[in-house]
Specification:
Elements: E1 11-14, E2 17-20, E3 32-33, E4 39-47, H1 54-74, E5 80-88, H2 93-105, E6 109-113, H3 118-131, E7 134-137, H4 144-147, E8 163-165, H5 170-184, E9 189-194, H6 198-213, E10 217-223, H7 232-239, E11 245-249, H8 252-264, E12 271-273, H9 281-285, E13 293-297, H10 308-316, H11 327-346, H12 356-364, E14 369-371, E15 374-376, E16 389-395, E17 398-405
Parallel strand pairs: 4-5, 4-6, 6-7, 7-8, 9-10, 9-11, 11-12, 12-13
Antiparallel strand pairs: 1-2, 3-4, 13-16, 14-15, 16-17
Helix pairs in contact: 1-11, 2-3, 5-6, 11-12
Length: 410
């Protein structure tokens, strides 16, 4: 938290806003004052900045930072200076819940980007909703986060008015993975494993439903502890089934050794997973990753004309960590909050409304812009309207795009 000296304050309440004429002062809705006569708007960033998943989290932090710096440099919102406040959730739901309360208690925070993990988000959504604080995740894909468990029976109901995302859902991702593995890769018999976490279990269930609809066969299934690194017992079970591929619902720290032990056992079959394994760390941790498969949201940013400036500016920013799988989506998520702040200011005679959080939340439904990853807008559930997915294969030690499409579900 920043220290603020309350000096030389002259405040005039007008038209529902508090106009400040002093540097270093703070207004009633918590919008702190930056340099000159600009109001500081803080955007929270929650992600795993330490631990096994930190490669993804650090890329998220840096991309959010770049968005704020870009908006400030352009003076994109008149009279507003943006600042990112990153908090480390360690990929732990309980820590994420604590972070949510820290963001809520800081009245300068008008929106929060993150988290990475759907299980963490489940502990953050209600506190944010109760506080009226906008949350937008660039990585959460659990369908129930926006549509509730009823989505499985066609009875989707929005869960929290404050939750949005730039990543598409596991309903979409599972359907795309099943279509690719069955139709494009020609795999008809699959062994299914998940890590029992919200993201992994949901993704595996969606894959299973769609794969069997296509005529594929699930020849066996298991659950693992994502903290384990010895998977020889389950690998032995897979060997007896004649599986042509292993589909894993989970993240790269466990997926990498699982894949290597699978190959070490003499089973020359690919492991396929979702965006949780689509990280540059996966082939680094897995000496036998060649031929493994993953799906991820959108197209690789390196192939998008809309991402050229983002990549150029990221490199110029001298960030020590790669932007990774969620960099472009995080930049777009952060920019969505910036756009909402802009709409709120423009709708209030050029001043940040006294209830900045409510104004930003009200504006989110109207947000639409051309972002790094494509057109950014949200449907009635807060889900992204961009459902494009890409399948990747590890080729010569790195992920290479194989196929992109917007799958049909239902």
């Amino acid at each position: 938290m920043r220290q603020r000296s309350l000096i030389a304050i002259t405040a005039v309440l007008a038209a529902g806003s508090l106009t400040l004429t002093a540097c270093g002062s703070r207004d009633d809705d918590g919008g702190g004052k930056g340099g000159g006569d600009k109001t500081t708007v803080v955007i929270g960033l929650d992600a795993p900045l330490t631990g096994d998943l930190s490669a993804l989290g650090l890329g998220m932090r840096n991309s959010a930072d770049l968005a704020a710096k870009t908006a400030n440099k352009q003076e994109y919102v008149e009279g507003v200076e943006f600042k990112i406040e990153p908090l480390d959730d360690q990929a732990q739901p309980s820590v994420g819940q604590q972070n949510a309360q820290k963001f809520i208690s800081n009245k300068d925070v008008l929106g929060v980007v993150g988290p990475l993990n759907s299980s963490v988000s489940q502990q953050m959504q209600k506190p944010f909703n109760d506080a009226g604080l906008t949350q937008i995740s660039p990585a959460n894909t659990g369908t129930e986060l926006t549509q509730g468990d009823g989505w499985k029976t066609g009875n989707s109901v929005r869960q929290f008015k404050t939750f949005f995302r730039t990543a598409t859902t596991d309903e979409i991702q599972g359907a795309f993975a099943a279509e690719y593995l069955f139709t494009k890769a020609g795999k008809k018999k699959v062994y299914l494993i998940d890590d029992q976490k919200t993201y992994g279990a949901g993704l595996a269930a969606s894959f299973k439903e769609n794969f069997t609809k296509l005529g594929g066969k699930i020849v066996g299934s298991d659950h693992i502890n994502p903290d384990d690194r010895d998977f020889n017992s389950v690998v032995a079970k897979i060997k007896k089934t004649g599986a042509e591929a292993l589909y894993y619902g989970g993240e790269y720290p466990a997926a990498a050794p699982l894949s290597q032990q699978l190959k070490d056992s003499g089973q020359n079959i690919p492991l396929m997973g979702g965006d949780g394994i689509y990280s540059g760390e996966f082939p680094k941790l897995n000496k036998k990753a060649e031929g493994d498969l993953a799906t991820s949201v959108g197209k690789p940013v390196e192939q998008l004309d809309s991402a050229k400036e983002f990549i150029k500016n990221y490199e110029a920013g001298s960030y020590e960590d790669a932007y990774e799988a969620y960099g472009g989506l995080t930049y777009d998520a952060t920019w969505a909050i910036i756009e909402a702040v802009k709409l709120a200011v423009e709708g209030n005679d050029g001043k940040l409304p006294s209830d900045g959080r409510k104004a930003v939340l009200d504006a989110m439904a109207k947000v639409k812009f051309d972002g790094v990853t494509g057109t950014i807008s949200f449907d009635e559930f807060g889900d992204t309207t961009n459902t494009l997915m890409t399948a990747y294969k590890v080729t010569k030690g790195a992920w290479a795009p194989e196929y992109s499409a917007s799958p049909k579900v239902g």
